[in-house]
Amino acid sequence: MSDDLRQLYRSFLKDTIRKHIDFSQTDQHRGVPPPPIAKPPTHDAVIIDLVKPHFWQGIRLIDLTEAIGKRRSHRTYLKEALTMDELSYLLWATQGIRRKMDRGHAYRTVPSAGCRHALETYLAVLNVQGLEPAIYRYLPLEHKLALIHDGAPLAERIVAAAFGQPYPGQAAATFIWTAVPYRMEWRYGPAAGKMIALDAGHVGQNLYLACAAIGAGTCAIAAYDQEAMDRLLDIDGNDEFTIYLASVGKLKG
Fold it and tell me: I need a labelling partner for 45 at 20 to 30 A (CA). Which of 9, 117, 148, 234 fits?
């Protein structure tokens, strides 16, 4: 590690990881109500039903030890489509809601600092049975999808936004997670960035393990053009911005 990189890393540790959280300065301490659990769909959004949790067909139970042992990144996929059951399962496994507590808190299938869950899930769908190629957003409270736009030419745009990495354009779908920072800032103030980064890791690992149950592979992607990816999702890049993505496709055998 070069001296410059070492100094940058140490600055990160000092300024972020070790940062003292003054809870007296947070909106939570001030009595401000928590922000909503998830972004609601627009009033004119096209809403698509997903298969309700635990009613999936063709999802095999897999031993956790086996799933962990098989966990690896896959960048080559079959041209076989994902089914709606499979997509519904992956969405539930990565951001599904187990129980809503109140306006701003819910227990999900992944952990989150302070139960804040600052992430939103978008999908760049290219090959899913019953879905037109387009950008969609997952609605975890309803367990449904909202159509955002067709993104045309979608395969080319997502590859370009991923700095030319080809596999998002060859995948059945690419999961794109965004952060809504105020959800975490409401409780943790300036230390929210650390918590959001940890949350992204949790959701990515759940996707890797869940893909093993449907004979699929995934590859997490952290190298992307921030502005291009935000434009693809029609988000402002400030109050909401892309933080992580992962391509998903079926594997041979």
Answer: 117
Structure tokens at 167: 């596999």
Fold of 45-250: NADH Oxidase (3.40.109)
- Retrieve residue 106's tokens: 């819910």
Q: Residue 199: which H helix or E strand, with range?
A: helix 192-212
CB 91 within 8 A of CB 137: no
The predicted-structure confidence for 86-145, as pLDDT tens digits, reads as follows 999 999 999 999 998 888 888 999 999 989 999 999 999 999 999 999 999 999 999 999
CA dihedral 97, 100, 101, 105 (to 10 degrees): 50
- Nearest CA-CA partner of 167 in 251, 72, 82, 248: 248
With CA atoms as reference, report the closest residue to 203 among 175, 227, 222, 229: 175
Closest CA to 35 of 186, 212, 236: 186
